[in-house]
Amino acid sequence: KVLADLSLYNEFRSWKDDPTMDRSCPFLDKIYQEDIFPCLTFSKSELASAVLEAVENNTLSIEPVGLQPVRFVKASAVECGGPKKCALTGQSKSCKHRIKLGDSSNYYYISPFCRYRITSVCNFFTYIRYIQQGLVKQQDVDQMFWEVMQLRKEMSLAKLGYFKEEL
Fold this sequence. Notes:
GO terms for molecular function: guanyl-nucleotide exchange factor activity. This is RAB3A interacting protein. It comes from Neovison vison. Keywords: Coiled coil. By secondary structure, this protein is α+β, with helices and mostly antiparallel strands. 47% of the residues lie in helices and 11% in strands. It has helices spanning 6-17, 26-39, 45-56, 112-132, 141-159, and strands at 60-64, 78-80, 97-101, 106-110. A four-stranded mixed sheet has the order 1-3-4-2. A hairpin with a 4-residue loop joins strand 3 and strand 4. Helix 2 (26-39) runs parallel beside helix 5 (141-159). It is elongated.
């Protein structure tokens, strides 16, 4: 494969030598600016910021709507948005999933479009956490870089509005 962005490749190699989750390192900074921030920018900006924080802290959960028997839902749980209104965009959309941030008891209904954007960012974070924790052993640095590029492509497709209907 031809390297399109040699500077990002070099930043990735430097990052991989001493992996950090600090968003100010050159490698992550570029991906935050070009992919993560645009992917997680929604009209409800306060909630969008909370979503980013939960993704960074690995404390966001996504679940399908309607699969939990009512008796198991905490009486104190607050549901924001609804099956027909996305909490992140405020738009009337069919929401088949809801998110929970950290240990909050609030649930936020999200549209398939928002779910794909969030999950594409979560997939990126999961992979770089695996690298940071030394769990990616079967790949050399080039293979890891191309996997990062594939995950960036997924974020780009998600922020452009392409998403799989089955999500």
